[in-house]
């Protein structure tokens, strides 16, 4: 075994931190090794606890955070190119406080009390980085550690109680306990107690939390036209492909037809011919269409992405304009400074405009159903779907398009978020895309039917169960975040108080003078 103080090991610590930070990406789709999330942080934490100085721990926390961002967002390279590197370096700074906590609480041979404290404080420190980077301006909550558990029923039940935040906390706590088991034999008792506590909490939630109560069902059709080559008429060809796939739904007794993001390339008030075609299609199928218009609006300046409900008589008046835009993909932050990004990648040449407020739509013919639309990136934000549920949505719908990243991990990662949002809110969620992956999840986060993969050009009908009641997450929101911040504040206060109580060092006496005769 190579000693950690050897010159060879010191030289390789920096690249090791970068690689260790990237490891958790394997728990997300497409690899989807969900079980790996329970051990993925261990190599990084072992490195941090052995850092010789706080400055070194901060450096390795920063490098590991940058590695995490690069790995989870590597599919952005076609759009951002080299600009992804400074973005990762900036966001990676958020893991420095967590790294310092790991070194302080897990370094050396911590006594049982400090080890027990680590099992609470270190996960809280990790959640701090996740919450801050969830701000849209820093890229949003894509790749939150808890989101890797989208296919685990027990984790989805935890999400219904405390959102994805509670799942992240427990994952980091398990990793922290494993570090203690591996590196600190004297702390095995609190480590085992920590793992047992996580298991008991999960079991208690599984047994004690209420499942969504069934409240009828809905037949929803998802139309996925597949890739359309770029060109001056690509929007019209995509529209025509959606029409062609929707017509066979006539007679299948569907309640709603959902098209993907940017499925309509012209504002319907400026193109009444398109509005008439959609109205005729709705009448033929016998169901309203929820389409997505990506166009310059006729009634106000700028380009909007909008969910628009169309019935047999035309647009119903229900329209939702996307509120949270994709940095660089739909707008360039501080364009006067960063506008050069458009010359090295596929950053937006013109900023999209933002909507003003969420919208819940009444579904014609189904007075018991209200639809809460989101557009693409917005399905990553737990607070947005919660707001729609509080406003009365009984069905959540995300319209998406990831064709730019068709052969990457992005379509699978994006589709997986629907399971978490459904479980958090106790409401079914439809994730409809232009080019896959399209998927539907029930109110407990369970998969409904088969997903439409990226290779599919199809229209699929899903029997979507509806639910009533509210989850604890809907009722109380992101309470694990408040608890984590309270834990960190209490820890900082305790450290500060201890520093104040520490006696000041005795003054050094002046040097004695020796008389020379």
Query: What is the average per-residue confidence, as pLDDT, rounded to a whole number?
Result: 92
Please give the number of β-strands: 11
String of helices and strands = HHHHHHHHHEHEHEEEHEEHEHEEEHH
* Rg calculated over all Cα atoms: 26 Å
Largest sheet: 6 strands, mixed
Uncertain ranges: none
β-strand amount: 15-25%
The strands making up the biggest β-sheet line up spatially as 5-4-3-2-1-11
* SS summary, helix count: 16
Q: Helical amount among residues, as a percent range? A: 40-55%
Write the layout of secondary structure elements.
Elements: H1 7-22, H2 42-49, H3 54-72, H4 77-80, H5 84-92, H6 96-106, H7 112-133, H8 153-183, H9 188-208, E1 213-224, H10 234-246, E2 256-258, H11 272-285, E3 289-296, E4 303-311, E5 314-321, H12 335-338, E6 361-363, E7 366-375, H13 382-390, E8 395-400, H14 410-425, E9 429-433, E10 439-441, E11 458-468, H15 472-476, H16 479-501
Parallel strand pairs: 1-2, 2-3, 7-8, 8-9
Antiparallel strand pairs: 1-11, 3-4, 4-5, 6-7, 9-10
Helix pairs in contact: 1-2, 1-3, 2-3, 2-8, 3-5, 3-6, 6-7, 7-8, 7-9, 7-16, 8-9, 8-14
């Amino acid at each position: 075994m190579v000693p950690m103080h050897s010159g060879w090991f010191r030289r390789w610590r920096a690249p090791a931190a970068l690689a260790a930070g990237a490891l958790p990406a394997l728990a997300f789709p497409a690899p989807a090794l969900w079980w790996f999330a329970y051990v993925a942080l261990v190599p990084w934490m072992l490195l941090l606890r052995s850092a010789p100085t706080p400055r070194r721990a901060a450096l390795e926390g920063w490098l590991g955070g940058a590695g995490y961002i690069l790995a989870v967002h590597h599919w952005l390279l076609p759009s951002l190119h080299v600009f992804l590197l400074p973005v990762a370096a900036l966001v990676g700074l958020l893991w420095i406080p967590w790294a310092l906590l790991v070194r302080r609480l897990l370094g050396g041979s911590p006594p049982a009390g400090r080890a027990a404290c680590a099992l609470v404080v270190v996960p809280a420190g990790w959640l701090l980085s996740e919450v801050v980077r969830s701000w849209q301006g820093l890229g949003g909550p894509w790749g939150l550690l808890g989101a890797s558990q989208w296919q685990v029923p027990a984790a989805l039940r935890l999400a219904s109680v405390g959102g994805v935040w509670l799942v992240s906390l427990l994952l980091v706590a398990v990793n922290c306990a494993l570090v203690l088991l591996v590196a600190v034999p004297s702390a095995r008792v609190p480590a085992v107690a920590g793992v047992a506590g996580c298991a008991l909490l999960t079991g208690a939630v599984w047994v004690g939390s209420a499942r969504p109560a069934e409240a009828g069902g809905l037949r929803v059709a998802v139309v996925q036209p597949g890739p359309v080559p770029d060109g001056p008429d690509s929007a019209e060809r995509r529209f025509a492909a959606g029409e062609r796939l929707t017509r066979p739904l006539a007679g299948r007794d569907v309640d709603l037809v959902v098209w993907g993001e940017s499925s309509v390339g012209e504002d319907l008030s400026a193109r009444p011919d398109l509005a008439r075609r959609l109205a005729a299609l709705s009448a033929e199928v016998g169901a309203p269409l929820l389409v997505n218009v990506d166009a310059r609006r006729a009634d106000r300046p700028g380009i909007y992405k909008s969910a628009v409900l169309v019935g047999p008589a035309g647009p119903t008046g229900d329209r939702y304009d996307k509120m949270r835009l994709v940095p660089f993909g739909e707008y360039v932050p501080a364009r006067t400074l960063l506008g050069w990004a458009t010359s090295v990648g596929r950053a937006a040449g013109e900023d999209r405009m933002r909507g003003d407020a969420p919208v819940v739509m009444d579904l014609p013919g189904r007075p018991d159903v209200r639809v809460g639309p989101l557009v693409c990136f917005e399905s990553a934000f737990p607070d947005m779907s919660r707001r729609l549920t509080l406003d009365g949505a009984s069905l959540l719908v995300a319209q998406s398009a990831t064709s730019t990243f068709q052969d990457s991990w992005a379509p699978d990662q994006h589709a997986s978020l629907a399971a978490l949002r459904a479980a958090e809110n106790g409401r079914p969620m439809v994730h409809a895309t232009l080019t896959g992956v399209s998927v539907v999840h029930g109110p407990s986060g369970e998969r409904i039917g088969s997903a439409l993969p990226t290779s599919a050009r199809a229209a699929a009908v899903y029997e979507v169960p509806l639910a009533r009641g509210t989850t604890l997450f809907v009722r109380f929101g992101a309470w694990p975040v408040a608890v984590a911040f309270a834990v960190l504040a209490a820890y900082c206060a305790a450290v500060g108080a201890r520093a104040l109580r520490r006696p000041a060092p005795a003054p050094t006496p002046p040097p004695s003078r020796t008389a020379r005769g």
